[in-house]
Amino acid sequence: MSSSLIPSTPSPREMEPWQEMLMENQDLYQERQKGKPPSEAGAARTEPLQKDSPLNHGVEQPEPPEEGRNAQEKGEKLGQGDTPSQETADPTQQLQTGISRAGPPEQEVTPKGQDPGPTLNHPVLDGDGNTSGGEEMPRVFQRGAKEEVEPPEEGRREEALMGELSELVQQVVKRSSWWERHGIDDCIIALNFLILPAGFLCLRSDNALPFLLGIFILGVVHHSVTVKGSHLASHNALTESKSWGKVWAIFFLEICSAFTAEQAYYNHVKLHHGYTNVIKLGDSSTWKLPFLNRYVYMFIAPIAIPILTPLVALGLLKDVELKTALRTLCCMFLGLYSHYWLLVNVSGFQSVWSALICMLITRSLLAHPYIHVNIFQHIGLPMFSADKKPKRIHLMSLGVLNLPRNALLDWSFGHSIINCHVEHHLFPNLSDNMCLKIKPIVSQYLKKKKLPYNEDSYMSRLRLFLHRYEELMVNAPPITELVGIQ
After folding, report:
1. Calpha distance 444→7 (Å, rounded)
2. pLDDT, tens digit, for every residue of 363-414?
3. 2, 362 contact by CB (below 8 A)
4. Which 3 state secondary structure label does DSSP give 448?
5. Is 173 within 8 Å of 181 (Cβ atoms)?
6. What radius of gyration do the chain's Cα atoms show?
């Protein structure tokens, strides 16, 4: 494992702000392990976060934040992309309701002496711990704000780091052509569709070699479309038009992937990217199945992904509007039936079961690296409670890891998922090719500023997870402490 994942313990005078944050979280963890109860402030802050899962509620998305009022805020906008700000996607609000609504706040009756807590009608904290609109802050946040507000110098320094990096990246983006920003990745996806007929025709052969080649082609195309295409579409990175972006999101996520676009956007963009490695929000815990042992989870369970994906989607449809649910059902049926129809009428499969088995094999061909990559790049790295998370640039540099380049996985999953994952979390609206283009700038900048830039090999992470599976994938971390490999 790379040495960048095992930070040393510097002297207090040499500590960076993000290192002080890690030490403070470690102290909290040690106190909890000794049986000491959390402070009143800590208990009040964490109580709203432990109530409900966001998947049990609606998925109407909050409005995107307004454009920054100065040049530095414009630089931050490039880094944040379509991830939520604290004003638009407060974690406790999302967990309690799963929805957000615009308009003037309404008065709600609260029993005398009861803490109103964070609701949709209350203002939320901005980046400096103040409330928007000049209204009174709910007491659950007042307690946290007193401890969470950073010294003005440190806060400005951290914001300046992200602003400076955003300016460097913005210069590269402005100098890049449309072909570099979108064309290359659009072309890769189009080529996958062009070679799709060859895959179906190869399955007509009675010889083993052409038949296996057809399986390989269909498997690679399926994952290129459902992983790379769906991922870029969810971030609106395939086109500069928001209207076309919504069309491509429905096509790739619902027709090709047999999943619901609204839930995919909410869970991936709003939670995972908005609260990366924040426990109970964007901590990748949805990938954990504690009842499975390490070998079943790592090597057998991925085969079931093509079956579980539409079943999970059906369970989530109860949380969306009726017309949205009907659209998703029609799109899912169209995608699955089209695959089956082509196998029967083009590839010449004679029975229903043989066609279904072929669908399972091709759709799970790269399911193992898909599962592995999703857990390797976040789980095992530092995680934070919602009230102790650092600023954005520190959060992303601490909690995200890059894997080495791999021709097959780069083609099927995309650079932003494999070898440019740090860059993708810092600038989520950029396409795979642009993430690859800014990679030298981001890596050099983080290293120059003595910030973590995590990199490790696929096999090293695989050995780590097999060796420490119980710790990383079974024992869920307490919400108020930092966990991970120290």
Report:
1. 18
2. 999 999 999 999 999 998 888 888 878 888 988 999 999 999 999 999 999 9
3. no
4. helix
5. yes
6. 23
